[in-house]
Amino acid sequence: FLINLVSLMAIGGVAAEVARRVMNRQQHRDLEARARYLGKWVSALDDRANLQSLIPPLGAETETRITLISRSGQALADSHQDAAAMDNHLERPEVAEALEKGVGERMRFSQTLGRDMMYVALRLDDEPAGAAIVRVSLTKSYIDQSIGGIYRRIAWAVVIVFVAAAVAGVVISNWISRPLEVIRRGAERFARGDLDLVLPIPDSLELADLADTMNQMAAQLRDRIDTLLRERSEREAVFASMAEGVVAVDEDERVIVCNAAAAWLLGIAGKARGQKMEAVVADEDLRLFARRVLAGERDLNDEITLKREGKVLVRVSGRALRGAQGRDIGALIVLDDITRLRQLENIRRDFVSNVSHELRTPITSIKGFVETLLDGAMDNRDDLVRFLGIISKHVSRLGAIIDDLLSLSRIEQEIEDKHIHLTEGMVAPILESSVMACEVLARDRNVDVVLDTPERLRGRINPTLLEQAVVNLIDNAIKYSPSGGRVVITAREDSKEIIIEVRDQGRGIAEEFIPRLFERFYRVDQARSRELGGTGLGLAIVKHIVNAHGGRVTVESKEGEGSVFRIHLPR
Ligand code: ADP
Predict the structure, then answer these.
(1) pLDDT at site 114
(2) Residue of the CA atom closest to atom 25 of ligand 1
(3) 55, 45 contact by CB (below 8 A)
């Protein structure tokens, strides 16, 4: 609107000025032409003609003021004034100019009439009737009137053109801006992430291109974001399913990545991402480790004990984290829980030393007695028999240890190779034959063994192994019962499991020893166990067999009152 208005006004202004000038020139020429006609007309007059009476009607008819002036400047006749009363006109600029050049013209204030006038004066060389100058003039207001008419027309034209242009402008701008508005709103929705939106294609060619380009851009962005999201979820799935803990920190020690395993190891609850390491990692050693990696120590490896529901030993390895441009952007720390591995290593080491120890005791004894015999004791028959008896006992003990070790390793091997076959079978016959296997010992130690089991009890079992486990339990129960004691074996089932129970009234086991009972070679009372011919492997074998059945063993015991060992087998 403003541009329209300003340009129209400028054009209008220029047009008005041009019109004014053209009009002025036109008036000038017109006046000059009238003056010339008048000159001719006066020249044709009789010398005695009465000018003062001829001129006024002529002036009235032509709407022009006419003045005839003599060479001396005396007004001879005037159409609008009494010539006799007029002052000398020689000094009037147009008159002076006409006398000098033939034609003179001026736009000036008339002293005679008291108004602005346009004058044109013409020199008459033959001076008819004494008139040397004919001067015609028009009032400026008369000229202005006709110019005013043109001004008005120009003004109207400006107004009409402006209104028309304004209406056209509103219509066109609406036509352009409505689809633009639609595109703008679409762009806003794209910016908010609503990339499924498809912009309508407007009629205008340029806007159609724009909308089409934006639609393509949104589709590309959507694809790219989908790809990124998919890649991120794949990466997160990989991290989440890793057994190793992975923590990545940036150079400001802020956590970039922390997978579930790392969160568990470090005891981080909630979101760690974006947080400072100090805020989420309680372990000082690990923070120092991360700092060393960040400080530029490459490929660091260490073992750190974390305090986490008991101690967790982790092997940590640290690498510099490389950004896309190959620049270091932080540190990547991988945590590997080696607690179990270390425990297994320790168990193995302990086992070897335990076995050596177990074997060395009887061998040392045997060696001692053999040397004693060789040194002469065999000459004494009583000593010979006694010592050979002791040697035989130790040899049996060695045999028992080796038998137990072998069966333990066989069971372990079978479990490892998944060679243990479980078949659907009756439980009662197994318990019966177990009791039978322990009959001699029971009689020797004067212990009453009672079996109470429902006949129909069935389960998925390996009969040979299960019998061995039950025999071990009954064997212990008899061994640790006092003479005249009673051992009761029962079996029952509930909704989930079959429970085989061996109960004795023996010395019982103090609570602190119970957790270790099933370890190999573990005995509460070393001397007594040896004396009873125990190897310390019986319960370890039981545990392995029951595990191979997918079950568990539990112990309930009170010192001095007796113990209950239970085998729980899944139904
Ligand atoms: P051992 O050959 O010494 O009996 P086990 O592995 O069978 O070895 O048992 C480990 C230890 O558990 C035994 O040395 C004994 O101290 C204790 N124990 C096992 N069964 C009983 C029980 N019924 N009553 C008391 N103590 C028992």
Answers:
(1) 86
(2) 508
(3) no
